[in-house]
């Protein structure tokens, strides 16, 4: 599957952001904590959601879909999710915490996902061990067992989002109180905690670097709507700025977009914030900026590639430093094929702005790289054909239709 993009300056109109991919995947995993009916609303039609839904069903839990909702209910019957599902997305590893809490044993293969660098699971496993689990490795699988999980003080060497979420879910049904120190601050962690609390959990402090979890014996059903996707919002905001457009991005939480907004304004774009929407437009030339990716509330690593495509047209040289993942410049080679002038050294990229880039046949190496190539294609002369676009569909709901609605010349090619 490929996506073809043609030069589309001055995109304009309104676009509505879907629910957060990075929030809904752990929320669906956490639904395993309850035997009662759990309903998650406004579920985006993206590949990663389909995979995690199938994975939950493979564990013996009933899963129903209606409109834009997913309902799950029942005790997990299986504690060994299939390798062919786990290898596809990293978020599959998030079922480990709930299964350990409910079943006392879980066996899972090492997770897959985008090839954006080494994302070790050691912090997840150290957290489970601190709660009383025994960890063994066998034939490429991780096996965790615990007769009874017990609360403890857990310090994370790095504020890992996945580790914070996995430990949070396991601790939510452990005996006693757990403190997770140096916890991730991301809004998606807060959303997960709010979801677990809606099922009867007792979690406080999410969004700070110390989260307190008082374990409960039983979780109830819930009806929950996840937060909007701040990375999807940021992608459309950058697309508007890159094309000198004027776009109203709806269904957002502006507070979650502060770092993105700051860099857009610094680059010469105008951003108008309202309660649940932002308008982005640009009439001035693109100014070069310095970006360093950091855990939230710093600049998100998931927006680095999109900004690099945008800054390739700036007047002057920009610098991007990737401090979260060590192999997240795979899009650079593809942007070079389009005429961008980028040099990398280690985790730093220097982008020398150029007046013109040209369409080319390029490859989406991962989810956000694919989004960057879409943005580059909108501003490039001629046509850009992006192969392996299934990476893009992992995290963006109906992106071709949404960009078309803004006047972009974009279509799928079988």
UniProtKB/TrEMBL annotation:
Report the residues modified as 2-(S-cysteinyl)pyruvic acid O-phosphothioketal.
114
List the subcellular locations.
Answer: Cytoplasm
Reaction(s) this enzyme catalyzes, per UniProt: phosphoenolpyruvate + UDP-N-acetyl-alpha-D-glucosamine = UDP-N-acetyl-3-O-(1-carboxyvinyl)-alpha-D-glucosamine + phosphate
Which family does the record claim for this protein?
A: Belongs to the EPSP synthase family. MurA subfamily.
Q: Name its GO BP terms in alphabetical order.
A: cell division; cell wall organization; peptidoglycan biosynthetic process; regulation of cell shape; UDP-N-acetylgalactosamine biosynthetic process
Q: What is this protein called?
A: UDP-N-acetylglucosamine 1-carboxyvinyltransferase
- List the EC numbers from the record: 2.5.1.7
């Amino acid at each position: 599957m490929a996506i073809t993009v043609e030069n589309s300056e001055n995109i304009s109109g309104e676009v509505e952001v879907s629910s957060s991919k990075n929030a809904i995947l752990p929320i669906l995993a956490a639904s395993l904590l309850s035997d009662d009916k759990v309903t998650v609303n406004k579920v985006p039609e993206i590949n990663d959601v389909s995979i995690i839904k199938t994975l939950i069903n493979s564990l013996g839990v009933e899963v129903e879909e209606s409109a834009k909702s997913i309902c799950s209910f029942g005790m997990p019957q299986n504690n060994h999710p299939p390798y062919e599902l786990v290898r596809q997305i990293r978020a599959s590893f998030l079922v480990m915490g709930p299964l350990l809490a409910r079943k006392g044993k879980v066996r899972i293969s090492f997770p897959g996902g985008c090839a954006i660098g080494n994302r070790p699971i050691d912090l997840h496993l150290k957290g489970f061990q601190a709660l009383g689990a025994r960890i063994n490795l066998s034939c490429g699988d991780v096996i965790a067992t615990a007769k009874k999980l017990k609360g403890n003080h857990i310090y994370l060497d790095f504020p890992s989002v996945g580790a914070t979420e996995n430990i949070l879910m396991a601790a939510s049904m452990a005996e006693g109180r757990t403190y997770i120190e140096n916890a991730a601050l991301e809004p998606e962690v807060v959303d997960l905690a709010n979801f677990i609390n809606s099922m009867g959990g007792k979690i406080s402090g999410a969004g700070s670097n110390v989260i307190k979890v008082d374990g409960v014996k039983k979780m109830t059903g819930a009806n929950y709507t996840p937060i909007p996707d701040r990375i999807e919002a940021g992608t459309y905001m950058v697309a508007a700025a890159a094309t000198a457009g004027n776009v109203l991005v709806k269904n957002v939480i502006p507070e979650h977009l502060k770092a993105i907004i700051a860099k857009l304004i610094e680059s010469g774009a105008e951003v108008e914030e309202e309660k649940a929407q932002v308008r982005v437009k640009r009439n001035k030339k693109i100014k070069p900026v310095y970006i360093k990716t950091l855990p939230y509330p710093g600049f998100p690593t998931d927006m680095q590639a999109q900004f690099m495509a945008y800054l390739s047209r700036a007047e002057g040289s920009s610098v991007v430093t990737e401090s979260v993942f060590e192999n997240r410049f795979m899009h650079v080679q593809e942007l070079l094929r389009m005429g961008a002038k980028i040099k990398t050294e280690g985790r730093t990229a220097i982008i020398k702005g150029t007046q013109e880039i040209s369409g080319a046949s390029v490859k989406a190496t991962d989810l956000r790289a694919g989004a960057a190539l879409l943005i580059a294609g909108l501003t490039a002369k001629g046509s850009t054909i992006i192969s392996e676009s299934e990476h893009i569909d992992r995290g963006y709901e109906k992106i071709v239709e949404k960009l078309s609605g803004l006047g972009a010349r974009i279509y799928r090619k079988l």
